[in-house]
Amino acid sequence: MKSITIHKLDADLAEQLEKRARRDGTSLNRTVKSILRTSLGLDRKAIEDHRSDFTDLFGSWSQEDASAFDERTSKVQTVNSSDWER
Question: pTM of the prediction?
Protein backbone atom coordinates (compact mmCIF):
# COMPACT_ATOMS: atom_id res chain seq x y z
CA MET A 1 0.00 0.00 0.00
CA LYS A 2 1.04 3.53 -0.73
CA SER A 3 1.56 6.08 2.04
CA ILE A 4 1.25 9.83 1.65
CA THR A 5 1.98 12.83 3.83
CA ILE A 6 -0.11 15.97 3.76
CA HIS A 7 1.78 19.12 4.69
CA LYS A 8 0.55 22.37 6.22
CA LEU A 9 -3.06 21.57 7.11
CA ASP A 10 -4.74 24.73 8.31
CA ALA A 11 -6.09 24.70 11.86
CA ASP A 12 -9.77 24.55 10.83
CA LEU A 13 -9.24 21.53 8.60
CA ALA A 14 -7.16 19.70 11.19
CA GLU A 15 -9.77 20.41 13.87
CA GLN A 16 -12.63 19.14 11.70
CA LEU A 17 -10.73 15.95 10.86
CA GLU A 18 -10.03 15.35 14.54
CA LYS A 19 -13.67 15.99 15.46
CA ARG A 20 -14.84 13.53 12.82
CA ALA A 21 -12.39 10.90 14.05
CA ARG A 22 -13.59 11.35 17.64
CA ARG A 23 -17.24 11.28 16.57
CA ASP A 24 -16.76 8.09 14.57
CA GLY A 25 -14.46 6.51 17.16
CA THR A 26 -11.76 5.89 14.58
CA SER A 27 -8.17 6.91 14.06
CA LEU A 28 -7.32 10.06 12.16
CA ASN A 29 -5.73 7.93 9.43
CA ARG A 30 -8.85 5.79 9.00
CA THR A 31 -11.03 8.91 9.01
CA VAL A 32 -9.02 10.59 6.23
CA LYS A 33 -9.07 7.40 4.14
CA SER A 34 -12.84 7.08 4.58
CA ILE A 35 -13.41 10.71 3.55
CA LEU A 36 -11.20 10.29 0.50
CA ARG A 37 -12.91 7.05 -0.60
CA THR A 38 -16.36 8.58 -0.21
CA SER A 39 -15.51 11.87 -1.91
CA LEU A 40 -13.92 10.05 -4.86
CA GLY A 41 -16.96 7.80 -5.26
CA LEU A 42 -15.12 4.64 -4.33
CA ASP A 43 -17.35 3.83 -1.37
CA ARG A 44 -20.93 4.62 -2.35
CA LYS A 45 -22.46 2.82 0.62
CA ALA A 46 -20.72 5.22 3.00
CA ILE A 47 -22.59 8.22 1.61
CA GLU A 48 -25.08 9.11 4.31
CA ASP A 49 -28.71 9.80 3.61
CA HIS A 50 -29.79 12.63 5.89
CA ARG A 51 -33.33 13.00 4.58
CA SER A 52 -34.77 11.21 7.61
CA ASP A 53 -33.13 13.82 9.86
CA PHE A 54 -35.62 16.40 8.54
CA THR A 55 -38.91 14.53 8.50
CA ASP A 56 -40.31 16.72 11.27
CA LEU A 57 -39.83 19.77 9.03
CA PHE A 58 -41.84 18.64 6.02
CA GLY A 59 -44.83 16.55 5.14
CA SER A 60 -46.36 15.07 2.06
CA TRP A 61 -49.17 16.18 -0.16
CA SER A 62 -52.14 14.19 -1.23
CA GLN A 63 -52.77 13.91 -4.95
CA GLU A 64 -55.60 16.40 -4.49
CA ASP A 65 -53.26 18.93 -2.77
CA ALA A 66 -50.63 18.52 -5.50
CA SER A 67 -53.20 18.99 -8.26
CA ALA A 68 -54.58 22.12 -6.59
CA PHE A 69 -51.08 23.55 -6.24
CA ASP A 70 -50.26 22.80 -9.88
CA GLU A 71 -53.48 24.44 -10.99
CA ARG A 72 -52.89 27.59 -8.93
CA THR A 73 -49.29 27.97 -10.06
CA SER A 74 -49.71 27.05 -13.72
CA LYS A 75 -49.36 30.69 -14.84
CA VAL A 76 -45.84 30.97 -13.44
CA GLN A 77 -44.76 27.90 -15.40
CA THR A 78 -45.01 29.76 -18.71
CA VAL A 79 -42.26 32.13 -19.80
CA ASN A 80 -43.53 35.18 -21.60
CA SER A 81 -40.72 36.35 -23.88
CA SER A 82 -42.07 39.92 -23.92
CA ASP A 83 -41.25 40.16 -20.20
CA TRP A 84 -37.56 39.88 -21.13
CA GLU A 85 -37.49 42.45 -23.92
CA ARG A 86 -36.17 45.96 -23.33
Answer: 0.51
